[in-house]
């Protein structure tokens, strides 16, 4: 009986710790909004370096989780630090419409044979957020 109780406790502990370990390897998009057509995001990069912001008219993603249809904005996230929650505003604007937004993070260690800009490897994509840019 004690053995079963111990195994159950170990399984429960692993179940609680594993999601946080996985989340640290993926960027998390906490919020996305717009201000005069500029996309404003709050996100965490986890153990990754900030990569890109993408806004698209479709929520369709590829096998890596990246938005792939109706891309209307793609910008490099330029931030001085990647610690904690980060806020970023796009320099370019979007036209009025409905958009799906996500950010990426780049692995910075162990990528000697990989160029993320060309191959997309070493790049992890966040969850999606929907924004609406109203007509002015």
Shape: globular
User: Approximately what portion of the residues adopt beta-strand conformation?
Assistant: 35-45%
- Mean pLDDT, rounded to whole units? 81
What CATH architecture would you give? Sandwich
CATH C-level category: Mainly Beta
Cα gyration radius (Å): 18 Å
Q: Determine the CATH superfamily.
A: Immunoglobulins
Instruction: Determine the N-to-C terminus distance.
Output: 68 Å
Largest sheet: 5 strands, antiparallel
Provide the helix percentage: 10-25%
Q: Which stretches are poorly predicted, pLDDT < 50 over at least 5 residues? A: 16-23
Number of strands: 8
Tags for this entry?
single chain; 136 residues; alpha+beta; Immunoglobulin-like; five-stranded antiparallel sheet; three-stranded antiparallel sheet; 2 helices
Detailed description of the structure:
The chain is of the alpha+beta class. The protein has one domain: Sandwich (Immunoglobulin-like), CATH 2.60.40.10. The protein is 19% helix and 41% strand. It contains two helices and eight strands, in the order αββββββαββ. It has helices spanning 2-23, 116-119; strands at 28-35, 38-44, 49-56, 71-76, 85-93, 97-106, 123-125, 129-133. The strands form two sheets. Strands 3, 4, 6, 7 and 8 form a five-stranded antiparallel sheet that branches. Strands 1-2-5 form a three-stranded antiparallel sheet, with no helix packed on it. A hairpin with a 2-residue loop joins strand 1 (28-35) and strand 2 (38-44). It is globular and about 65 Å long. The N and C termini lie far apart (68 Å).
């Amino acid at each position: 009986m004690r053995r079963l109780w111990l195994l159950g406790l170990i399984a429960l502990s692993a179940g609680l710790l594993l999601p946080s370990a996985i989340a640290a390897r993926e960027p998390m998009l906490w919020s996305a909004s717009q201000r005069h057509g500029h996309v404003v995001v709050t996100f965490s990069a986890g153990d990754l370096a900030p990569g890109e912001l993408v806004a698209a008219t479709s929520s369709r993603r590829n096998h890596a989780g990246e938005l792939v249809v109706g891309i209307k904005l793609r910008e490099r996230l330029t931030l001085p630090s990647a610690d904690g929650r980060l806020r970023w505003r796009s320099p370019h604007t979007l036209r009025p419409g409905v958009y799906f937004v996500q950010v990426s993070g780049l692995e910075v260690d162990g990528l000697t044979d990989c160029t993320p800009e060309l191959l997309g490897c070493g790049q992890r994509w966040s969850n999606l957020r929907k924004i609406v840019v109203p007509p002015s």
